[in-house]
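Holo prediction. Input below; ligand is flavin-adenine dinucleotide.
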Amino acid sequence: MKPAPFRYVAARSLDEALALKAEHGDEARFLAGGQSLIPAMNFRLAQPAMLIDINPLKELDYIRRAGNVLRIGALARYRALQRDAAVARHQPLLAETLPHVAHPQIRNRGTLAGNMAHADPASELPAVVLALGGRMHARSGRGERWIDARDFFKGALTTALKSDEMLTEIELPDLPAKSGAAFLEVSRRRGDYAMMGVAAVVTLGADGACIGARLAYCNAGEKQMLAGKAAQALVGRRGADKYISDAAALAESEIDPQGNVHASKKFQRHLAGVLTRRALQTALARAGAA
Ligand SMILES: Cc1cc2nc3c(=O)[nH]c(=O)nc-3n(C[C@H](O)[C@H](O)[C@H](O)COP(=O)(O)OP(=O)(O)OC[C@H]3O[C@@H](n4cnc5c(N)ncnc54)[C@H](O)[C@@H]3O)c2cc1C
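Structure of the complex:
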């Protein structure tokens, strides 16, 4: 199918892009990698009156270290993230997850910011940014603000961004010392959206007790979600590996999978339990648990 008629504007500056968005509001969409927006337009699931192409804004194309955080600009593509030494070194969970996202052609164009703004609960990357405790930087003609990842995702294809705001940067803090992380998913074919996926992060204290844990899931509900109760089952425990099964059982009941043609809700819960156990085993081993 072909998209409904729309006006195309290649933004010449960030200010111009923000002014156009403020003027046209929800009728206008930013165009980043186009790997979700253009298919949706071709199916006429999205019919924006205007596309504001932000690809000319090269100042948004960066991956930078600043102190103990990684700053990822709105135009940083998956492929650049996959090849970046700082991502591999400081955010190995992101590096480990990226090959699970779609296919090389899509990763050449798709952006992390576009993925966040699209907010598909089945996507792997919101789970990763949630598990890492990331923050989103939003800008509009009115000013700028930071939004914690846990406050950013409001539901399927819905975020905390206002109609005049652009997501300009994603900030990922380094994990504390003695942290370990792992991402696992099950999909029908490599590159497909996951039937179920989990991003696990654990941090151990000096005495080996677990002092922090986050478990975030993809395709586990109507919105991107952290399983707080499941993660809490590990916190404060010495020999946290003995409590992995408790955490996995809690995760199975805490998530709210919707089921689809590929997997029933029951099977998705089962997958969540199995993946949680395996991801936590790996994360704890990477954190240096005995
Ligand atoms: C065949 C296929 C398979 C795929 N498989 C997967 C998969 O397995 N896992 C997965 O996670 N994704 C998958 N995707 C989607 C892909 O990851 C997209 O690249 C991503 O969802 C959107 O990023 P984008 O840069 O392409 O954004 P676009 O498509 O350009 O934009 C998506 C939405 O975000 C908005 N937007 C973009 N940038 C900004 C910004 N800076 N500020 C505010 N709003 C913005 C747009 O207006 C639009 O509404 C797949 C896509 C295809 C075509």
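The first strand starts at residue 7 and ends at 10. That is the main takeaway for now.
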